Amino acid sequence: MELPSCLEDYEPDLVLTVDDRRNLILGLAQDGTKTIGRFITEHSDNKRSGIAKLFKHLRTRLDRQVERAREQIERRFKGRSKGVRDELDEDLERMTDGGETEGSFKSQIHREIDSRLEEILSRDAVLNLIIDLDEEQTETTRSWWARLKDAFWRLINYLKELMVRFIAWLKGTSATGKRDRSMGKQPQRMASILLNYPSGSKLNSRLDRNLNNVLVSNSDFKRVIDKDIKAAGVKKQPDGSRISWQKHFHRDRYDTEVQKAINQRIKRAIKREQRRLAHELERRRRRAKRSQKDKTQQELRNREMDSRLKQLEKQKSDELNKLKHEYQEQIDGAVQKALENELEDAGYLQKGKKNELLITSRLIDRFAEIVLSDELQKLPTKYSQKAGILGMSHGVYEKKKFRTVSDISHMDIVASLVNARLAHPTHRHIDDSDIVTHREIRSTISHVVLIFDKSGSMEENDRINAAKKAVLAIYKAVKNKNPRNIVDFIAFDSTVQVMDMLSAWHSSPSGFTNTGEALSMARRLIKDSQADHKLIYLITDGLPEAYTDKLTGKPRAGDLEKSLHIAVSEAKKLRTINRLKLTMILLEPKERIYTEAAKSVAKAAGGSVIVTDPNELVTEMLTDYIEV
């Protein structure tokens, strides 16, 4: 989300403190316009600074708007995250439930089989299972003709059974009791079954029932048992008379056959249940497999959801960071624009041809003032106060009555108002006789030429910056003494250039030291001057090592002896100029020859030499200028 630029047409008020302006001017002069951004950063947290106050004011304007934008981003991404989660929930609803492994389902099925077998062998359901087993097999495997035939024989057997019961009833109670007692003497036979559980344990269960009574009381059960016995002995006696014979005459054998048939029936019923449960196992196994697949898909979807949520979170974080960045950019931009406008209004900056910001001569002039002020604080009081450097800016003045119209520009307003009030309290006007002016009683003009070496060697130990600061400080001292004083700047290396203050400050070191040509240029500038005092200051760090060929007008380097000879010759020509003083300042001479060369040049012009360190250069030059 792009933050609307509500500060685009807003021009904030920036009030810089004295210290702010001073530090800013120093930074602009020494580091150029790039110092603006650093200055803003350094002063944004300083509560006393106008920059910090402007930051606070701009944040107040933007905070509400930024908060609304942040809330919109939060709501939008909250909705997107909810959409991702809802999409995942819908996918999960379409998946089959599960989550258990195939092994867990097998264990569950085995437990169900064990439980089912116990039900089969411990309740009356075993009879129904046996009967249902026969009917199920009959309905599914036999033809209609066989089923019809079976029904017919069931009817015959049923009639035969009725006949047997009727005959038994005719025999009377005694016969029945005798028969019952003979049957009661037979030991009750219990069906004993040994089966294996699917889970691996053993099942040893007894059917706690009198199967003979079951055969009598349940005709369906008797029918299916007789059918099994008949099927087992049909090869020996196809007509089925064996069963009837055994029932009446070989009861023990018949009971044994019945027990075998019941055991077979129970085993068949159990196997049927095992097959049914095995099918259930397979069905659940397939479902478990699908569930496992769905679980894998669910895990993939979960990971996908986590990835998408993380991506959304990252996008949200990026947008919030972008919003914060835009917020800070707008504030920084507004502050920088306000500061640039303030500096442009003050005349310290101006727009170049490509709309870039450039420092002006006014800023360098103000910088020179600051340098001079700092250096004067290091000087003894007698030097700082001498020659009116810190006093009147137009020479020496005295308070006098108004005489000519030209004096009106020098009127002392406070003194004039006091005179008018004392002379005529009721008359609210200032008469000519009330006006007090500052009349200049003495004014001398100086012409100063500031020459500084900008050869390649001046880059060492930052000598070039020390020289440029020194000429700016002297320039400001000369101008403070009398604004009508004249100051020229000459920078020289292999060539010589007359510069203004701004160009002099921006000059950079290169080439060789052409001292002779620099002195020649200074002589041309000052020889026709009408100034009362004429001064030349030449700052260098080495020997004259280049000269200008008079025939070609091009510089030549390498002949030290000739270069020194030409420099001395040009220095002698300065003697012809009245009221001229030459001062050479030698920075960090490496050998004695450097000092001797400087003295020979200065002696030729009737001047002096100062040997000093770059850090003491401004102090030495100011002291020398004040003592002139």
Written overview of the protein:
- It is elongated, with a radius of gyration of 62 Å.
- The protein folds into four domains: 18-93 and 299-346, no CATH class; 102-293, no CATH class; 364-393 and 444-626, von Willebrand factor, type A domain (Rossmann fold), CATH 3.40.50.410; 405-441, no CATH class.
- Strand 1 (191-196) and strand 2 form a beta hairpin.
- The strands form five sheets. It has a six-stranded mixed β-sheet, sandwiched between helices.
- The protein is an alpha/beta fold.
- The two termini are 69 Å apart.
- The protein has helices spanning 18-31, 35-43, 50-94, 102-122, 125-141, 144-170, 172-184, 211-217, 219-232, 241-249, 251-345, 361-378, 381-385, 413-423, 463-481, 501-506, 515-526, 560-573, 592-605, 617-626, and strands at 191-196, 202-207, 349-351, 357-359, 396-401, 436-442, 446-453, 486-492, 496-499, 533-540, 546-548, 555-557, 580-587, 608-612.
- Helices cover 61% and strands 12% of the residues.
